[in-house]
């Protein structure tokens, strides 16, 4: 039976640590503010944005919400970002993705000042991570590192297999594991012998976006399995990319969905906001 990696509990720990830091900053007269922009009203996005606002309120970070209609133009959004870039009272800017199809996502990401890029999506942030310079790190992969460290799972020298090569999860995840001295393999939809490679993993990080695709036949006995996926199944229940019931008996440690990686993403977003304010000095 696998040890359950409790993301809800660990994210709570991190939020409590941040809450203390924020009150110390407040005592020095420093107020931290995150601007959260949502274009349109995709219900999943609304849930995530709501969770982010709640986390801000808990920690003592001011959240400035922009709920923009679906028809908002790219120019309008860029103009709001420009104003927020220039606003000294704002430390972090988050544009919830995905944005509607008529808006160019890349242009929006590039418009956010790297100093306020608490998502870590800007090319300068990604480049900094790649060459080991300070900068904001994408929240989901950063949260997974915290999950592993705080669960006392060794990374150094271990074979880590990441399934998925997106710019916001797979690629930064591989870079972070490399920084922690793991031996890293990146797999994706065109990988030919996926199962054989996964079976070699000491740490298997799954971010493929296919509900319950990874079952026990992909997992080495005692491996750590991290599930980044989040889907709703036929009964409207949340599930991940990993078939939890199948994998749990063979894994050494495993994250659940919900209550695994998701809450960590938000905790690390809060961490990046506090860092943004601290770096300002
Ligand atoms: N600019 C931007 N930054 C993001 O960080 C970003 C984004 N866009 N777009 C969408 C993804 C997804 N994401 C999640 C955040 C929290 C949970 C979360 O709180 N999950 C809970 C369950 C939530 C539920 O009930 O649905 C859990 O897993 O326990 C999940 C997913 C942030 N993202």
Automatic annotation (TrEMBL):
Keywords linked to the UniProt accession: Amino-acid biosynthesis, Histidine biosynthesis, Hydrolase, Methionine biosynthesis, Multifunctional enzyme, NADP, One-carbon metabolism, Oxidoreductase, Purine biosynthesis
Catalytic activity: (6R)-5,10-methylene-5,6,7,8-tetrahydrofolate + NADP(+) = (6R)-5,10-methenyltetrahydrofolate + NADPH; (6R)-5,10-methenyltetrahydrofolate + H2O = (6R)-10-formyltetrahydrofolate + H(+)
The family this protein is said to belong to: Belongs to the tetrahydrofolate dehydrogenase/cyclohydrolase family.
Xref: PROSITE patterns: THF_DHG_CYH_1, THF_DHG_CYH_2
Gene3D superfamilies: Leucine Dehydrogenase, chain A, domain 1, NAD(P)-binding Rossmann-like Domain
GO MF annotation: an example: methylenetetrahydrofolate dehydrogenase (NADP+) activity
A GO biological-process term: L-histidine biosynthetic process
EC number: 1.5.1.5, 3.5.4.9
Functional summary from the UniProt entry: Catalyzes the oxidation of 5,10-methylenetetrahydrofolate to 5,10-methenyltetrahydrofolate and then the hydrolysis of 5,10-methenyltetrahydrofolate to 10-formyltetrahydrofolate.
Name listed for the protein in its UniProt record: Bifunctional protein FolD
Organism of origin: Wujia chipingensis
Subunit structure: Homodimer.
Limits of the Tetrahydrofolate dehydrogenase/cyclohydrolase NAD(P)-binding domain: 138-280
Listed GO CC annotations: cytosol
InterPro entries: Aminoacid_DH-like_N_sf, NAD(P)-bd_dom_sf, THF_DH/CycHdrlase, THF_DH/CycHdrlase_cat_dom, THF_DH/CycHdrlase_CS, THF_DH/CycHdrlase_NAD-bd_dom
Domain Tetrahydrofolate dehydrogenase/cyclohydrolase catalytic: 5-119
Keyword Hydrolase: yes
Binding site for NADP(+): 164-166, 230
């Amino acid at each position: 039976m696998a040890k359950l990696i409790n993301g809800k509990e660990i994210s709570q720990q991190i939020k409590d640590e941040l809450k203390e830091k924020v009150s110390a900053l407040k005592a020095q007269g420093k107020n931290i503010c995150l601007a959260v922009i949502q274009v349109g009203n995709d219900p999943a996005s609304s849930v995530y944005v709501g969770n982010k606002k709640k986390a801000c309120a808990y920690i003592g970070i001011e959240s400035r919400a922009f709920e923009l209609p679906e028809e908002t133009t790219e120019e309008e959004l860029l103009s709001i970002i420009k104003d927020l870039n220039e606003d000294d009272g704002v430390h972090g800017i988050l544009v919830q993705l995905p944005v509607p199809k008529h808006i160019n996502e890349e242009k929006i990401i590039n418009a956010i000042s790297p100093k306020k890029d608490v998502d870590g999506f800007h090319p300068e942030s990604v480049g900094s991570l790649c060459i080991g310079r300070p900068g904001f790190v994408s929240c989901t992969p950063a949260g997974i590192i915290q999950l592993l460290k705080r669960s006392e799972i060794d990374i150094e020298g271990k074979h880590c297999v990441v399934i998925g090569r997106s710019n916001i999860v797979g690629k930064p995840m591989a870079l972070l594991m490399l920084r922690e001295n793991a031996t890293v393999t990146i797999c994706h939809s065109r990988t030919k012998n996926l199962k054989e490679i996964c079976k070699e993993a000491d740490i298997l990080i799954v971010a493929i976006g296919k509900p319950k695709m990874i079952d026990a036949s992909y997992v080495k006995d005692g491996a750590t399995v991290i599930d980044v996926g989040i889907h709703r199944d036929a009964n409207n229940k949340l599930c991940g990319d990993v078939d939890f019931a199948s994998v749990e008996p063979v894994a050494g440690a495993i994250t659940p969905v919900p209550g695994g990686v998701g809450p960590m993403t938000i905790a690390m977003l809060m961490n990046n906001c506090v860092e943004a304010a601290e770096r300002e000095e």
